[in-house]
Each structure stands twice: as C-alpha cells, then as structure tokens.
Write a structure and sequence with these properties.
Radius of gyration: 19 Å
Number of domains: 1
Pfam family, one: EamA
Oligomer: single chain
Order of helices and strands: HHHHHHHEEHHHHHH
Keywords: Cell membrane, Membrane, Transmembrane, Transmembrane helix
Structural class: mainly alpha
Number of strands: 2
Helix content: over 70%
Strand order of the largest sheet: 1-2
Subcellular location: Cell membrane
Family: Belongs to the EamA transporter family.
Strand content: under 5%
Shape: globular
Number of helices: 13
InterPro entries: Diverse_Substrate_Transporter, EamA_dom, EmrE-like
C-alpha cells in the first residue's frame, strides 16, 4: 500500500469513527454503557470472523500478546468515552479525547527521558488553554465528571497510539485490529454482567445504532487503523486524527441540537491549533533537511 493510499484509508477510518459519538448518544438512551459496548463489539467480532477468518490464521504468540494488550487499553478508552458521553456533549467529549494527539510526543519524551520538542510544548500549552475555554462555565472554570472521563480516555488513547505504532511494525496489523475488537467485547460483556442488567436491543432504532457502530465505526474504523498506520508516518496519522473532533462537532450541532458558546468555539480553535500546528512545523523541518 502506498503512503497516499494509506492516508486516504486513515482519513476514511477517522471520519467513520467520528460518527460513533452521534450513534452512541442515541444508543445510550435505551441501553446501559457496557451493555451497548458488549452488543456492538459482539456483532463486530461475528462479522469480522465470518468475512475474514482466513486472515486470522496463523497467529503468532507475539501478535496474540500485543493484540491482548491493545484490547485491554482500548477497552479503557471506550469505557471512559461512553461514560463521558452520558453527561457531556459529543463535541466536547470528542475534542477532549483527541487531545491524546498532543499527549503522544510528551509521553514519548517521558518514556525516552528526553526533552520534548519545542513544537510539542507549544502544542501542549495551546491545547491546555483550549481545554480551559472548552470547559469554562460562567463564573468558574471546572471540569465536570464527563469531561474528566473524556480526558482519562485521551490518556489511554495516547497509549494506544504509541503501542499500535510499535506493535504494527512487527505484527500483522489486521490481526492486531481484530484482537482489539475481541477483547473489548470480552471485557465489556464481563462488565455488563457484573454491573448492569444485560439485554438485547429491543427495537429498530437500537438495532440500527448497533449495526452502524459495529459495521462502520468498529469493523471498518477500529480494524483498519493499524493497517493504515503501518504505511504512513506518525505525524501524518496525528494530523488526520484532528478530523475526528471536527466531524463529531458538526454532527453534534446539526443532528443532536448541541449549542456552541463563544467560549467553546475559542476552545475548539485553540485545540485544533494545538493539534495541527506542531505537526506542520515538524513536517516543514523534515522537508528542509
């Protein structure tokens, strides 16, 4: 796969996953958090197994281990994302969760015990200012419970990005994507039976939401992201991830009736700047070398 094709695929994957915020909001009107996750990922596992079972064998022990690790961390991402969406607007959750992009270079610097690049520091500062605007309410700046959950999801997602880049370099990326989906199903099912009353969707609206989440957002979005990331640079991947909150915001405003205050608009502009400008700076530096 060429880098251009990988970029197109990655953009499609990110946009597909951005639609999940809209469908999750609708789905949680009738289904509990982990119940919705469990049914969604059960359908996704079933479809992926039926359509691509030949690509799942043989599977190395390394791929099995790495896919399990990714699945556990991604389950944390999804769980906190769903809990955030129960109380916060989808646009806010999407922007807060995607601050993971700027967390990646900071985490890498921490892991390697090196100073982060100036562009990464700039992006982090501008993004933090944006988070402040985004979470501002008249008279005070305070994080709601949903916004805290979204930021925890962001930290976990940053970990997933780093691990995916490392594992996809040596393991089968499609198998890694499938194992992510499988483990999210297993863990969300366990959580459902332990904390909720499990049930199947009961009407066409709930089934439509489940099928859209399973086929478009999970089967396509989750499974093919490692495939796309294997053929493009982390910088380019980070740039495309900025599409997620923008698409989610458009859907939240137009389809869910969410409103954007001037403070939220200022926060969105700061976060988009913090996510994209450092990547553009680093890309320009590489071209000059």
């Amino acid at each position: 796969m060429s880098e251009k094709s990988a970029s197109v695929l990655l953009a499609a994957v990110i946009i597909a996953r951005a639609t999940s915020y809209y469908f999750i909001k609708i789905g949680m009107e009738g289904l509990d958090v982990f119940n919705l996750l469990a049914v969604r990922f059960f359908v996704a596992v079933l479809l992926l197994t039926l359509l691509f079972h030949k690509r799942l064998y043989p599977m190395t022990k390394s791929t099995l281990l790495h896919g399990t690790i990714l699945g556990v961390v991604f389950f944390a991402v999804m769980a906190f994302e769903f809990m955030a969406l129960k109380t916060s607007p989808s646009s806010t959750v999407s922007f807060l969760e995607n601050t993971s992009i700027i967390l990646v270079p900071l985490l890498v610097a921490l892991i390697t015990r090196t100073l982060p690049k100036k562009s990464a520091i700039f992006g982090a500062v501008i993004t933090i200012i944006g988070v402040g605007f985004l979470t501002y309410t008249p008279g005070r700046i305070a994080l709601t419970r949903g916004e805290i959950f979204a930021l925890i999801a962001a930290l976990n997602y940053a970990t997933v990005i780093i691990l995916t880049a490392r594992f996809a370099a040596t393991d089968d990326p499609f198998q890694l994507g499938f194992l992510q989906v499988l483990w999210i199903f297993i863990l969300s099912s366990l959580a459902t039976f332990l904390t909720e009353t499990p049930r199947w969707p009961e009407n066409h609206v709930e089934w439509t939401v489940i099928l859209m989440l399973a086929v478009v957002c999970t089967g396509f979005g989750f499974t093919l992201q490692p495939v796309a990331q294997r053929h493009t640079t982390p910088e380019r991947a980070g740039m495309f991830c900025a599409l997620n909150p923008m698409c989610a915001t458009i859907m939240g405003v137009t389809l869910l009736g969410e409103t954007l205050s001037l403070y939220k608009i200022a926060g969105i502009l700061c976060i988009v700047t913090g996510l994209t400008v450092p990547i553009l700076i680093e890309s320009r530096k590489k071209k000059q070398l």
